[in-house]
Amino acid sequence: MRHAAAVLSVVCLALAPAAAADNPVEIPVTRVVLFSSGVGYFEHKGEVEGDAVTRLMFKVDQINDVLKSMVLDDLNDGKVTCVSYASQDPIVRALKSFAIDVSGDPKLSDLLKQVRGADVTVLAPEKITGKILSIETTQKTVTVGGMGTIITETVMNLVTPQGIKSLSMSTVNNVTLTDEKLAGELTKALELLITSHDTQRKPVEIQFTGKGKRTVRIGYIAETPIWKTSYRLDLSGKKPMIQGWAIVENTSDTDWSKVALDLVSGRPISFIQDLYTPLYMPRPIVQPELYASLRPQMYEEGLRKSGAAELAEAEQADDAPADAKGDARGAARKRAERALAPGAPPAAKEKLGATFGGYADAVAAGEMSLARGVQSVAMAGKVGELFHFAIKDPVNLPRRRSAMLPIVNSEIAAEKVSIYNASVLPKNPLNGAWLKNSTGMKMIGGPVTVFDGGMYAGDARIDNLVPDDKRLISYAIDLNVTVDPSGKTDSRVTSVKIVRGMLEIKHLSTFEQTYAIKNKADEKRTIIVEHPFAAERKLVAPEKYEEKTPALYRFRVEVDKAAQKDLLVKEEQVHSEMVAILDRTPEAILSYSKTGQVSKAVMDAIQKAGELKGKVVQLESQMQELNKQKQSLVTAQDRLRKNIETVGKDSEPGKNFVAKLVDMEKQIDGLDAKMGDLQKAIDSARNDLANYLKNLNVE
Predict the structure, then answer these.
(1) CB 76, CB 214: distance < 8 Å
(2) Does pLDDT of 394 surpass 90?
(3) Greatest distance between any 2 Cα atoms in the chain
(4) Using N-to-C axis directions, what is the helix angle for 652-694 and 600-647, rounded to 10°?
(5) HEC string of 334-384?
(6) Mean predicted confidence (pLDDT) in 519-548
(7) 397, 252 in Cβ contact below 8 A?
(8) To which H or E segment does residue 407 belong?
C-alpha cells in the first residue's frame, strides 16, 4: 500500500460527477485476513477508468471500524478525492437544521406557519396564487337542527393581486411551494427522514480521480466472528499424527470469490470508538474546555514453568547428534522464513504448504489414517509478533456460509500417559498424552478428537501451543489403573530460644501424601500425578518433579503391568510462635524444657524463670486467700449492723453484736497489715522475674 499514508489527509476536493455517482464501479473483495481477536481485514482490488465512484455497503455497527481503519490506494497517478457517507447525526437535530422542520410529525398548518411570506399556489378548490400572510384559528357559530354550535376553524390568509383572501384549510386540496429553494429543503428533509429508517446497511462512497484505466485498492478493518480451530490426533503407531482445521465464517453480505485468505493468531488490541455519530460538546460561554480520559489497561497473568524435566531435555539435546538437532520445528520455521521473505519464488511457498509427511509405519488396512486424503492448504509463518496461516489457493465462500480448511497435517511428538488428580477423579486417572508442538507452527487452542488403534478414543481440549511447547491433554477415564490416596500430618517442636524474655518456639509440620497406584493393564503405564502446590511448604520427597505450574506439581511414575507402586510426596513447613513468659503458668513454662530440641542453657533459663514465676504465683495465691478472709469479715459486719438496727444497740443482744463488730474490725486491720506486707513481697518477686527476663537472650 504505497499511498496508504496519504489517505490520512484526504480531503473532499470536489463532488463526484453525477454520471460517476449514478453508475458506481464494483470493486470486489480480493483478500481477507481474519484475526483471532474478533476483527478482520478486508481488501478490495479492481480497475477504474477516469473519474469514478465505488460504493460499499456496511452494517451500521461496522462503520465506526471502517472510519477508523480505512486505507486507500489509487495507482498510476490517480488520487482519492473524497470518502462520503450518510451522516449519523441524531435525526431530530438533523431535521431541525432544514429551513422546514418536519420533526415531531407536524400538521399542515404548522408547516405553513414556518414558511410565512413564501409564494404558494393553492387549490381551494379554484387555483389561487399569493404569499402566505398568516395561519390563524377562528371560531364561528353554526345552526344545526335549530341549535347554535360553536366550531373552530383553521384559516390561511393569502396576499394576492386581488387583495387579502382568507381560505378555510378544510377547503384546501393542494399547496405548492413556488420557491424552489424552500421546496428543495422540504424534499431533502423528507429524504433524510426516509433514509433514517434503514438501520441495517449504509453506503460509503469513495471518489477516485484520474485518467485512463488504473488499479485501485481499498482496505479496512471490520468486526468478524473469531476463526476457530479443531484438531484430530491419531496416537496409533510410533509416530502420532495431528491434523488441524480452521473454521471460518463469511458473515458479510458479499460473496468471497477467489479471495486470498489469511488466518492470523494472536490478540492485537482492538476497540470501537464512535466516529460515525457527530459529537457535540457543551461549551462554556467564555472559555472552552477539553476533557479527555484514558481507559485502564489490563494485562493477562503470565505462567511460569520449571522442573527437572527441562534439565533432562536440555541434556538430551546436548547429547544428540548434530544432524538430529535440526528438528521438524526448526526446519519448518526456516522454510517458512525463506518462503515468506520478499522476492521468494512461488515454488518455495507451494513447497511450504505441502504436508510434512505420513506415518513411518503403515497404518493397518481399513483403519482411519490422517496421513491420507487431506493435506494442509496453508503456509505458516511469523508476522511481527503474530503467527499467520496463508491459505495457498484462492477461497470461494458465498455470503452467510462457513467453511473448514485444513491448516495442519503433520507428525507430532506425543507420549501416551495417564493423568491422576484427586480433585478431578479420586479413584482413576485419565487417559491422556503429553504433546510437544513439533509441527513448526503455532497451534491455536481448540477441541481435539483423539483416535487410537484406528478408533475414536475420546475428546480433549488444548490451549495455544507455540513451537516446542509441551502440554497435557486427557480424553478418557483409565479404568485399568486405580489410585488410593492417603495422607497424614505431623507436627513437632524443633527449637526453643529466649529473646528478650519471650519464648521463640519453632514448629516443623510434615505433610505426607501416599499415592498407591495399581496397574491392572497388560502393559506398562506412565502415570502423571498432579499434587497441589503450596508456596509455604518445601518439597522433601521426591527430590525431582517432572513439571510445576503455579497451582500444582506433576510427578512421573512408571508402573509395570499387573503391578503396584507407591508415590510418597512429603512436604515440610516451618512456622514460629512467640510466647510471653510472664503470661504463662509455671507448669506451661517448664513444659517447654521437656522437649529434646531445647539446649541446656535454654532449659536452665526456663527452669529458673519457672521458679521465679512460681514464687510470684505462690505469693499471689496467698494474697487471694487473705482477700477472701477480709471479704468474709466485711460481709459478716454488714449482717451485724442490720441486726443492731433491729434490736437496738442498748439491748442485751445489741451489746453482744457491737462487741463482735469491734472484734471483726480488729481482725480486718490485722489482715490489711498482712496484705500490705504481702503486696510488697509480690512486687519484689515480680520485679525479680521482670529483671531476669528483661535482657535474657538464650539459645
Answers:
(1) yes
(2) no
(3) 146
(4) 160
(5) HHHHHHHCCCCCHHHHHHHHCCCCCCCCCCCCCCCCCCCCCCCCEEEEEEC
(6) 92
(7) no
(8) strand 401-411
Judge whether residue 284 has pLDDT over 60: no
DSSP element (H, E) containing 131: strand 127-144
356 pLDDT higher than 60: no
> What does 574-600 look like in DSSP terms, one character per residue?
EEEEEEEGGGS-HHHHHHGGGSTTS-H
User: Which position has the higher pLDDT, 498 or 642?
Assistant: 642
Residue listed under C-alpha cell 471500524: 65
- The DSSP result for 17-64, as a single string, is PHHHHHSPPP--EEEEEEETTSEEEEEEEEEEESSEEEEEEEEGGGHH
Neighbour count for residue 232 (Cβ, 10 Å): 20
Query: What is the rounded end-to-end Cα distance, in angstroms, of the chain?
Result: 78
Range with the poorest average pLDDT among 285-289, 593-597, 658-662: 285-289
Angle at the Cα of 36 (from 33 to 42), degrees rounded to 5? 20
| Interval 75-89: pLDDT, tens | 877 888 888 776 655
User: For the chain, what is the total number of helices (H) and then of strands (E)?
Assistant: 11, 32
pLDDT per residue over 475-493, tens digit each?
999 999 999 999 999 988 7
Question: In angstroms, rounded to a whole number, what is the distance separating the alpha carbons of residues 123 and 109?
Answer: 15
All residues at 6 or more sequence positions from 40 whose CB lies less than 8 Å from its CB, including other chains: 32, 33, 34, 221, 222, 223, 224
Q: Is the pTM of this model over 0.90?
A: no
For cell 378555510, the residue is 168
The Cα-based distances of 263 to 463, 522, 630 in angstroms read: 17, 45, 96
Q: Residue 294: pLDDT band by 50, 70, 90 thresholds?
A: very low
Q: Are 696 and 602 a contacting pair, CB within 8 Å? A: no
How does DSSP classify residue 295?
Answer: P
In angstroms, rounded to a whole number, what is the distance separating the alpha carbons of residues 480 and 431? 10
Torsion, Cα of 328, 334, 335, 338 (10° steps): 180
Sign of CA dihedral 437, 439, 440, 446: negative
- Taking CA atoms, 415 is separated from 226, 327, 469, in Å, by 31, 17, 14
200 three-state secondary structure? coil
Element housing 238 (H / E):
none
pLDDT score at 510: 93
Amino acid type, 110: D
Measured distance CA(487)–CA(508) in Å, rounded: 17
